[in-house]
Amino acid sequence: MKNSHFFAHLARMKHIQRWPLMRSISKENVSEHSLQVAFVAHALAVIKNKKFDGQLNPERIAILGMYHDTSEVLTGDLPTPVKYYNPEIAKEYKKIESAAEQKLLSMLPEEFRDDFAPFLISQSSHVEDTEIVKQADTICAYLKCLEELSAGNHEFALAKKRLEVTLQERRSPEMQYFLDTFAPSFKLSLDEIS
Question: What is the spatial distance between Cα 45 and Cα 69, in angstroms, rounded to a whole number?
Fold first, then answer.
């Protein structure tokens, strides 16, 4: 049996810092972010199913959230203003991400690749599931901005405004429900939420 470096690579997600161009009061790494995205994506799927007649698999969507940024162990976290500076850069970066996803998949023993491919390869997931994870990813970035701003870090003011536009573009009933119900708490202190 040949050794696989797959999980050793995933363990390195904790070393990749998010928001590299920003001064953050609270540092965040890709591993922490991916767990929060999984939580929020799961919640969005449950909300959609319970309140808006959805037929989603929340557990599968949570796993998609866990794996959504795994390619960054090979690519690093390219800041959003750079990644989407123009359509050509965005297109080329998608190719780089795709190659990194394929490289990660190839690290697994052959017999497990079909089991992991739906979670590692972004094009292999159902469109509706992928959209929920994108919504969760955007919400999590927005929540980070709320936390930083509530701690007095105005460095995140423009990022918050940019994310509000993205939230509006991705708006869905389940997103609005989540934001109305859960997001206000992210502006509060521990004593206020206890």
Answer: 19
